[in-house]
Design a protein that fits this description.
Largest sheet: 5 strands, mixed, barrel
Structural class: alpha+beta
CATH topology of the largest domain: GMP Synthetase, Chain A, domain 3
Strand content: 25-35%
Radius of gyration: 28 Å
Distance between the termini: 55 Å
Order of helices and strands: EEEEEEEHEEHEHHHHHEEEEE
Number of domains: 4
CATH class of the largest domain: Alpha Beta
Number of helices: 7
Number of strands: 15
CATH architecture of the largest domain: 2-Layer Sandwich
């Protein structure tokens, strides 16, 4: 730890309280050495939570960081409590499922979790329609003597709960590293030249695959350098004009059709530096 003028420099670390959760920042207000993979106990908006250090920033400006209040480096006893809470949460989830069935609530209960000091039990569920779960909350509060929160989540968040494979054969991104869900539109698939087949473009959650977003900026940038489908262009070294019938945005290539006669046509693919056209892109 470094000091200047008798004041301790901040030792900022990035912490995740869930495997692929949002990155939060904590000022490790201690002289203990820490490393990536260590666990810390911090006060968050949800209460006391144990998180894993995934990034060490050191002495940085914290004005733009979402800071959480440091309590201590997690001890062996803290981790035992954490494991006990996980076990208790599983038991609570099973009990909750049984009670929801008795109450004929149309909801799918997914996962339960206690915050560290067990002052709150949070249960996540999915449902097609709005669910009146007030009676269920009363039953849970009476049994567990703690604050109960039932939170409805969407289909994308649901997929993060279970191991699932994507079309690429790897575990879905939202369960391995993806922190935030960004909007994905069918326009992205069209710009990437993909066949609009919803069964092939949809992920395990039934929504458009998040990976359509990954290369969007590259496609947009490259498409600005290419003519439009249907444009009439000239190809260096060719006498006849040609019509654009296809684009390869990643390789910056253009497929064209030459109309040689009523009966004869020729198709060729050229790199963009061989194509001349009057751009009409805005």
């Amino acid at each position: 730890m470094s000091y200047k003028g008798g004041e301790r420099l901040k030792n900022i670390v990035g912490v995740r309280f869930k495997k692929t959760g949002k990155l939060y920042y904590v000022d490790i207000n201690t002289d203990e050495a820490v490393k990536i993979g260590d666990n810390v106990l911090a006060e968050t908006s949800r209460g006391q939570e144990i998180g894993r250090i995934v990034k060490i920033l050191g002495d940085v400006n914290t004005d733009d960081l979402e800071m959480q209040t440091f309590i201590r480096i997690a001890t062996n006893e803290d981790m035992k409590v954490y494991k006990q809470n996980e076990k208790r949460a599983l038991e609570a989830l099973e009990f909750c499922k049984g009670e929801a069935k008795k109450l004929n609530l149309n909801m799918k209960l997914l996962v339960a979790e206690y915050i560290f000091d067990a002052s709150k039990l949070i249960i996540y569920f999915v449902a097609e329609d709005r669910v009146d779960f007030r009676e269920l909350v009363k039953i849970l509060a009476s049994k567990y003597k703690t604050r109960i929160e039932l939170r409805q989540i969407g289909p994308r968040d649901e997929i993060k709960v279970y191991p699932n494979l994507g079309m690429c054969g790897k575990e879905v991104c939202c369960r391995t590293y993806l922190q935030n869900f960004e909007p994905v539109t069918i326009k992205m698939a069209k710009e990437q030249g993909l066949q609009i087949n919803m069964s092939k473009l949809s992920g395990a959650c039934g929504k458009l695959m998040c990976c359509l977003k990954y290369e969007e900026d590259t496609y947009k940038q490259n498409l600005q350098m290419l003519p439009n489908i249907g444009d009439i262009v000239r190809v260096k070294g060719e006498k006849e004009e040609a019509k654009v019938i296809g684009l390869d945005a990643l390789k910056l290539k253009v497929k064209v059709r030459f109309k040689l006669s009523k009966e004869e046509e020729r198709f060729s693919v050229y790199p963009i530096d061989m194509i001349e056209w009057e751009s009409n892109r805005g």
